[in-house]
Amino acid sequence: MATSRSFPQFFRQILAARWRTLLLLFTGVVLPLIGFEQFAIVIGQQGTFAWDQAILTAIHSTAQSMLDRIAVTITPLGVFYGVFPIATLISIGLLYRRRWRSLSYLLVTLLGSALINRTAKIWLHRDRPDLWETLTPHTDFSFPSGHAMSSMSLAAALVILTWGSRWCGWVSAIGAGFVVMIAWTRLYLGVHFPSDILAGWMISLAWAIGVSLIIRPHLEAPYEETTLLPDELQSTRS
C-alpha cells in the first residue's frame, strides 16, 4: 500500500518532480504567448509600433544590388524551397526509422504553425509595409510573418527532437542562423515589419514547446516510438 502523505508533503514532492516542466511551460509557452498577445493588441488598436518604421528605414539604408540578389535568393528558403523540403526529408527519415512519436510531433508542430499563421493574418488583417517598392511584392496580410513562423517552428522542433544528443548544439547553432537569416531577408525586402517577425517567433516557439509537452517526443528511446504511453492508451479506450 502506498504511503499516505499530507498535502504539504505531496505539493513539495510534485514540485520537486515537475519543476523543470513547469519552468519550461512558463518561460517557453506562457511568456511568449503574453508577448504575442501584447503585440496583437497594439497592432489591432494602433496599427504599428513607433520603432517598426525606424528599423525598416535603417535596414533599407544598407540596400545595394548585391544584397538585393542575396535577399531575393534566400527568402524563398523560409517556406517552400527550404523549410518544406527539409521537413519532408526529415519526415521520410523518421518514417523509415519508425519514429512515430517524433514524426507526429514534427507534423503537428509545422502544420499547426501554418494554421495559426493563416488564422492570425485573417483575424488582424494588417497591411504590409509600403515604405518603398519591394522586389518581391505580396498581396496577403503581414502579421505575423509566415516565413518567421515556419523557420522558427522547424528550428525549434529539431532542437527539441535532438535535445540531449551530440547533435543538439549543431542543430541549435545552424537553426538560429537560419531563423535570423530568413528574418533579415523579410525586413531587407520591406515585406514585413519587425514586429511581424518578433510576433511570429513568439507564437511559433510557444506552439513548438507546448506541443512537445503534450506529445513528449524526447521521452522514449527511438525503438519504443511505435507504442503509446499508458495515459495515451487510457484515452483511446475511454
What keyword list fits this structure?
238 residues; mainly alpha; Vanadium-containing Chloroperoxidase, domain 1; 9 helices; globular
* N/C terminus separation: 27 Å
Q: Beta-sheet strand percentage? A: under 5%
What structural category do the secondary elements indicate?
A: mainly alpha
Q: What oligomerization state is this entry in? A: single chain
Could you describe the 3D structure shown?
By secondary structure, this protein is mainly α. It has a single domain, classed as Up-down Bundle (Vanadium-containing Chloroperoxidase, domain 1), CATH 1.20.144. The chain has helices spanning 7-46, 50-60, 65-74, 83-96, 100-124, 146-161, 168-188, 194-215, 230-237. Helix 5 packs antiparallel against helix 8. The longest helix is centred in the first third of the chain and has 40 residues, at 7-46. The relative contact order is 0.16.
Describe the protein's topology:
Blueprint: H1 7-46, H2 50-60, H3 65-74, H4 83-96, H5 100-124, H6 146-161, H7 168-188, H8 194-215, H9 230-237
Helix pairs in contact: 1-8, 3-7, 4-5, 5-6, 5-8, 6-7, 6-8
Quick structural overview:
The chain is an all-alpha fold and 238 residues long. It is built from nine helices and no strands.
